[in-house]
Amino acid sequence: MYIKQILYLLEKFVTVLGGNIKQNPNTQSLSQTGTELKTINDFLFQSQIDNINLFKVRRYCEKSMVSRKLFGFTERYGAVLAPPREQPRLTGFQHFIQSLQPGVTEAPTAPVEEGEARVPRPASPLMHIEGFLEALTTANQDGRVMLSRQGRLSQSSLKFLLLNPAVPFAQVVKECRAVVIAGGTMQPVSDFREQLLACAGVEAERLVEFSCGHVIPPDNILPLVLCSGPSNQQLEFTYLKRELPQMMDETGRILCNLCNVVPGGVICFFPSYEYQRQVHAHWDKSGLLARLAVRKKIFQEPKRANQVEQVLTEYSRCIQCHGQAGGMVNGALLLSVVGGKMSEGINFSDDLGRCVVMVGLPYPNIKSPELQEKMAYLDHTLPRTPGQAPPGKALVENLCMKAVNQSIGRAIRHQKDFASIVLLDQRYARPPILAKLPAWIRDRVEVKATFGPAFAALRKFHHEKSGLS
């Protein structure tokens, strides 16, 4: 009975997206495209599954462990293998004639293209279905269902957006004597206090916030906020200004100067892959890329995850080789993306990361339906503090600064390490933005209105530190 209900639910999920389970999803074109957000109740009614007791279906899945059984079955019989590539069918006579021809054998399977990863099939897709069904039992006001309809059914999806994480977290707070939330890069932490702990019923007197400093000496880091470039172009990488040729040229000139005085590796973070490609193409056309290549070998962060290791290996080898051999090229420049594969979990210690450059403020896409819904929810439910930004706007700023802090934390990985951090945007000098940096960086930040003093400070810092290392 419950298996039939699960199959019925799956059919209705496909139908609400505009598809048909009896047809191949790769060939089904959808007449309606775009992203749509619905309340949980509206989604249940539109899908015609409001008459099904999802609590009972969920309880059946838990007791029967049907998803685990499917997982064990697929683990044992191997569902990770890539599907075989189709070969032209030959009749018996054609196969016989082919075998008689000298030097002709059966056509080999076409090799996987370089950089093309074999994507494993999910071992038990039913686990995802169980999670989605559990999410649909959330209170109507605490979540939304996002219907993403693309060109084909196989590219479309259903996603649950939890608006109030305090509801599931409240049970943890209620049952435990103490709760410790720990992390390496958690600044700014106002989200935890206001959206998670306070909404979960935690009294203010129970909260204890502890943030320790860094193990490095204060003079082993040089964080700078740069407000203008070598040609006195004001640096403000807003959405409207960042694509201006003069803004991209100024960024290139700044990097050229930095590469002349910074030994080893320089990592430059851009707000998005699209902007990184646009700037790279502009530099190539204007000749700035060739000027950069005189001092640093240039690497770009790949979009494919299976190519990251190769790029990092070549980047590291280049720095080590040029550090020993000398010459004009004194290291490497890595063009990365905030929130990409190299902005978290990668260790750029010592010569791999002597300078981290952050181009602009990587604000999330304000037109995202998910972000707009979350902002509207916070503005409606959280009280507004006088003199501070609305809760929705504060969320956007916090998401931006968490990404910045995660990226600039790739350097300075041990006590004897040293590096400079250059924040390219005059908006970093604003007190509300500076306050969201980690204390061990914020307390040492120097705001430079012009490029000359900033360049002099960088040259002095790296000259002294390189002489001691």
From TrEMBL:
It is found in: Nucleus. Its main location: nucleus. Residues 273-430 form the ATP-dependent helicase C-terminal domain. CDD domains: SF2_C_XPD. Its cofactor is [4Fe-4S] cluster. One of its GO terms (cellular component) is nucleus. It comes from the Eukaryota. InterPro entries: ATP-dep_Helicase_C (IPR006555), DinG/Rad3-like (IPR045028), P-loop_NTPase (IPR027417), Rad3/Chl1-like (IPR013020). Keywords: ATP-binding, DNA-binding, Helicase, Hydrolase, Iron, Iron-sulfur, Isomerase, Metal-binding, Nucleotide-binding, Nucleus, RNA-binding. It holds the Pfam family Helicase_C_2. GO terms for molecular function: ATP binding; DNA binding; DNA helicase activity; hydrolase activity, acting on acid anhydrides, in phosphorus-containing anhydrides; iron-sulfur cluster binding; metal ion binding; RNA binding. GO terms for biological process: establishment of sister chromatid cohesion; nucleobase-containing compound metabolic process. Belongs to the DEAD box helicase family. DEAH subfamily. DDX11/CHL1 sub-subfamily. This is DEAD/H-box helicase 11. It comes from Myotis myotis.
